[in-house]
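Researcher: Structure prediction, please.
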Amino acid sequence: MSEINFNNADFFHSYGVYSQIPPSDRVEIAMAGRSNVGKSSLINKALNRKSLARVSSVPGKTATINFYDLDGIYLVDLPGYGYAKVAKSEKARWAELIEGYLHDDREMALIFQLIDMRHPPSADDLHMINFLIDSEIPFVIVFTKADKLTKRERTERMEGFAKEIPCFDHIVSIPFSAQTGEGTDEIRKIIQEVVT
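Model: Predicted structure follows.
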């Protein structure tokens, strides 16, 4: 595939029930992470757009799987997990959506697993990472909100992640900030690499 034009992106469709999602017909790269970790902000930054992906300050707002057409591939924004103030039935629907998507026979090139750099990974984050490792789904960890930490705090958190996250030495990780743009070039480069 030729060079991706990151400005050539459009919202394609969102699906609230797994059975609505059409079969995979092109390469897909998905964003996973807990509620309010910054998935929509990352998509907007990577695609040079202010509000292609709707950003909300309310956790748990993305309750659908959202597909974005990026120059012939799909970027897929998965619903955030781990938000406590949601009805059990809604949580079950989200789980079915996310698991259905990840277990399906799709052209999954990569998952960007987002983790808030300011905090240790949650139990849900670790569950997801272990699932990706066990399922042999290629993934990269993106540490979001990197601009919120001082240099010392950042060093401490990276040392912490090395102990907290399984197989950390073997996982590519990228500090990212939607505010400063740190990490955006690396994310674009990885997307380009996995689709060519």
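Model: The CA atoms of residues 44 and 51 lie 6 Å apart.
Researcher: Thanks, that helps.
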